[in-house]
């Protein structure tokens, strides 16, 4: 009887711990996503965007987010084709955002993007 109870307790303990182990990667992904969102927001902080510009960029970002999700869900595409379409979407987004920015804001944004690109290359080394 004691062996049966002990065995049941051990099975429950292992089941319980494996449940949390499966949740860990999802939490980690969510934290990484939130970190990226925070970084993206800070990219525009120094540009002194007007409310109208912020609203327009938010619409562009929301539209791109839904298009990216559609691409991720499309299982008929190869990885290469998906990557290519995502690059097109990113390029299209930047063109739309640049159309909203003033020349001074564009210059500042390009400098920030270049700095981030260089920082990313340093981090990889």
SSE topology string? HHHH
Tally the helices.
4
Gyration radius (Cα, Å) is: 23 Å
Low-pLDDT ranges: none
- SS strand fraction: under 5%
Count of beta strands: 0
Helix percentage range: over 70%
Mean of all residue-level pLDDT scores: 79
Report the end-to-end length measured between terminal Cα atoms.
59 Å
Shape annotation: elongated
State the secondary-structure class.
mainly alpha
Sheet having the most strands: none
Can you walk through the features of this model?
The chain has 125 residues and is an all-alpha fold. The protein is 87% helix and 0% strand. It contains four helices and no strands. The longest helix is centred in the N-terminal third of the chain and has 42 residues, at 2-43. The mean pLDDT is 79.
In brief:
The chain is 87% helix and 0% strand. It has helices at residues 2-43, 51-73, 79-100, 103-124.
């Amino acid at each position: 009887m004691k062996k049966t109870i002990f065995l049941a307790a051990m099975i429950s303990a292992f089941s319980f711990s494996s449940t949390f182990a499966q949740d860990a990667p999802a939490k980690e992904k969510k934290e990484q996503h939130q970190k990226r969102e925070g970084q993206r927001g800070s990219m525009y902080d120094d540009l002194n965007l007007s409310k109208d510009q912020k609203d327009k960029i938010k619409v562009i970002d929301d539209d791109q987010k839904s298009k990216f999700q559609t691409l991720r869900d499309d299982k008929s595409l190869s990885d290469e084709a998906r990557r290519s379409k995502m690059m097109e979407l990113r390029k299209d987004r930047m063109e739309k955002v640049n159309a909203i920015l003033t020349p001074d804001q564009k210059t500042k944004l390009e400098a920030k993007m270049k700095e981030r690109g260089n920082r990313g290359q340093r981090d990889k080394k």
